[in-house]
Amino acid sequence: MTPGARTQAAIDLLDEIVAAAASGGAAADTLIARYFATRRYAGSKDRRAVRELVYAAIRQAGPVPPSGRAAVLAVADQDPAIAATFDGTGHGPAPITPDEPRAEGGVAPAWLVEALTASGLDAAQQAALVDRAPLDLRVNGLATTRDAVLEQWPDATVTPHAPMGIRLPNGTPVEQSDLYRAGLVEVQDEGSQLVGEALAAKPGEWLVDLCAGAGGKTLQLAAAMNNQGALLACDIDRARLQRLAPRAERAGATIIESRLLNPGREAEMLSDWAAKADGVLIDAPCSGTATWRRNPEARWRLTPERLARLGAMQTQVLDIGAGLVKPGGRLVYIVCSLLDAEGSEQVAAFLSRHPGWSTAPIEPGIGTLHGLGQRLDPATHGTDGFFVACLRAPC
Ligand SMILES: C[S@@+](CC[C@H](N)C(=O)[O-])C[C@H]1O[C@@H](n2cnc3c(N)ncnc32)[C@H](O)[C@@H]1O
User: Fold this and answer.
1) Does the entry feature the keyword S-adenosyl-L-methionine, yes or no (predicted)?
2) How far is the CA of 218 from the centre of ligand 1 (A)?
3) CB atoms within 10 A of CB 327
4) ω into 246 cis (within 30 of 0)
């Protein structure tokens, strides 16, 4: 592809991404993969260049841009090499005309910036939410040690905070490596590893991962439990939960039972675990405001109405989880969002609904104390952002 054709491809893709954000359609990564699946003439360098330009344009535009062209023009204003490709030749975009609209810059739409500011994030912390994320892996303690992996993977370095974390250069084809295939490592952001440790899982315990998804944190819990005890992984999303079994097999995690829950019937379907768990992990559905580094167009999809719906889901999973915890047991609540409405305020509301419950310290501490929990954020800790709180049931 010529440089101009690559720019036009980015514009076309951004038009699709903007439309998908408005209609709740496919994610940017999926749209990019589909686009190239039907354009075999595009080589790997073309694909990389188009992808980079698409993501640069997404990161640059705080509010939803009016068009793909406006989004790329905003990048071209900062990058003369991109601006030069608007020459109207071949398959390239038409020349830039005076006063063409540009995508508005910024971190996010104005209402979200306001909510982030009210949640205590300064301008630098907000800007870092749309930085590029590193490629972090968790070493599977059931199968090996971090030192052994570091020896076999010369490109890897240790992550600064998580005891089993390693970092690789972005773009490393992890899933094609022998170490990954043998179950010695899992892709997991360092922040996710740190908050997964907040439950302080121990061998022999009975634990529930209530919102297990594809099991990223379930596998971490199984490793911390050294495959001893009972570990129940639940979710209402069949497709996600189905991905756990092959991952568990690869990782050699043998104590996991997975259970698909019917929305609205969760407590009934978990009645055999009522008041039995030593600990419950709730990695709740949330807006993902603190993982924009990985899918920056998510900030174009969030609306106040969706945020309110997510809040109702968080309240619901917290109440379901509380019913599973034995007297004196613990519940760890996690969201990958830095909005107080999804974090500390949810915990405060939980405490007012559940007399006798209290917050408990997380040892060792994670990140920065914030409200009724602790927080990690990309600017301060170099990880994805998380809010995490530990709650103790009355005895
Ligand atoms: C943040 S994701 C979990 C990610 C996962 N823990 C991990 O580490 O990869 C939140 C999950 O909560 C699930 N969820 C939403 N409502 C639920 C409910 N009522 N009961 C159980 N899971 C629910 C969603 O399907 C989603 O998979």
Assistant:
1) yes
2) 12
3) 9
4) no
> From residue 301, how far is each of 24, 70, 81, 102, 287 by CA, in Å?
7, 18, 30, 20, 9
For a ligand 1 pocket test, name from 236, 260, 306 the mutation site with the most ligand atoms within 8 angstroms of its C-beta: 236
Residue 168: how many other CB atoms lie within 10 Å: 19
Say whether 283 counts as a known binding-site residue.
Answer: yes
* Alpha-carbon gap, residue 395 to 327, rounded angstroms: 4
- What's the CA gap between 222 and 201, in Å, rounded? 8
pLDDT digits (tens, 9 = 90+) for 307-351: 999 999 999 999 999 999 999 999 999 999 999 999 999 999 999
User: 237 C-alpha vs ligand 1 centroid, how far in Å?
Assistant: 8
Residue 222's closest CA among 233, 214, 211?
233
**What's the Cα-to-Cα distance from 95 to each of 5, 83, 100, 228, rounded to whole Å?**
13, 9, 11, 65
> d(Cα 87, Cα 81) in Å, to the nearest integer?
11
Q: How far is the CA of 274 from the centre of ligand 1 (A)?
A: 19
Q: Looking at residue 262, what DSSP letter applies?
A: P
Residue 376: φ, ψ to 5°: -115, 145
Residue among 189, 211, 269, 294 to mutate when testing ligand 1 (max atoms within 8 A of CB): 211
Predicted TM-score (pTM) of the model is 0.94
ipTM above 0.90, yes or no: yes
Give the SS3 label for residue 140: coil
Per cent of the chain over pLDDT 70 is 100
- Is 390 in the active site? no
Q: Helices 68-76 and 3-23: crossing angle, nearest 10°?
A: 130
Tell me whether residue 235 is annotated as binding.
yes
Tokens of 206: 């009975």
Ramachandran angles phi, psi of 92, nearest 5°: -80, 165
> Quick one: tokens of 21?
């954000």
